[in-house]
Amino acid sequence: MPRRPQPSKYDVLSFRLLVDGKETPDQLAIQSVHIERRLGDVPRASVVVRLPVDRLEKVLANQPFQPGRSIEVELGWDEKRERQFKGMIASYSLDLQPGGGAQLRVLCYDEAIRLTDGTGEASFQDSKDAEVVEQIVRESGLRVTAAATDSLRAWVRQLGLTRWNFLRRLAARNQHLLYAEDGEVITAAPALGSAPELELHLGDDLLAFSGSSSPVLQPSDTATLQHHGSATLMGEGGLRLNTLVRLAGVGALFSRDHLITGVMHNVAEGMWRTTITFGLPPDYFADELAAINPSLAEYLQYDEETQSLRLHTPAGNQLLLSDQDEQLVLQDQHGNQLVMKASGIELNSTKDIAQKAHGELTLEGMQAELKATGGKLQLEGISVEAKAQTQFSAEGVASAELSSSGQTTVKGAMVMIN
Fold first, then answer.
1. Same domain as 164, residue 210
2. For position 366, what pLDDT does the model report?
3. Fewest C-beta atoms under 10 Å: which of 22, 127, 259, 338?
């Protein structure tokens, strides 16, 4: 049976904030703390500190919230605390109020934030997706727990993505979730078959609830994911991402087990509230292009094994980009084709090819050949010049004719006729 939240005996919030392992000094009055964990996102925390205006400069000079330092947040009731966040300080800002008050706002992230630093390129050959996940995370100096994947892929490429977004893509295509916790990156299948760890009742435990459902649009075997919403209760430290929570007293539609997709803790004015979100969007695991425009996925296919991308229209016009064949092929519905590959460029037409230029048209190559295999080859212009650096020859197999309606000149150092 899932446990029920244990009420505080004295309703006394127990709170501790540590920077580089040391508790913050008493003169720094913590005004509020907000912690946020969501599937697919790097956990974050924000801390607001009230500063004494009369000693502002001195306190600021010695305040511990320097970017790059480690930070931990412990929360609990009646002196029983649990760590709810561990990460690093990213930045802080100072806010001076018109009435003379001063606030220091501190922004913190889980150490997995390193994986969001800039886009890049990387290639992985003959690897499983789980192996790629483990390699990327460990090279970043973080711990990792990656769910096993079966397919051995000839080539996996990170292109134009941050390492975190690349990990999200690898996880999603294996129907896995990506999240981080205290410096550890985790990919795992949705924990739909597990037992709920906590049971929450409206009126006893729940302070607020909001829910929506669209079961008609989703598969019948994902009932736990069909419902989406949020629930708020008194501060509870035992809630984790990708676990189940049981809701009761909220109607037949929502009184069931739900997958936790987000956990938020908010501490302010001596009160601690926890809000959870539940349920995944219907297209969480969908191809990213399909999620943007579902109709586009039908006409755009990517083959991981051959590293090829094909775009086509309903009428049959298509573009093929292939890394395996090292070529680009553009073809229309009439069979006209442009092929670009290592040996050169081929332009093929089932009928005519016309080239026109309003300016100068230049064709140049190491060698050039014009051939009409089935008819006449015609050159025409106001003035036509043909010049050879060494030898010039013109031959007609059946007959040859040189004529002009005006003057005709045949000139050379020696002219031989017949």
1. no
2. 84
3. 22
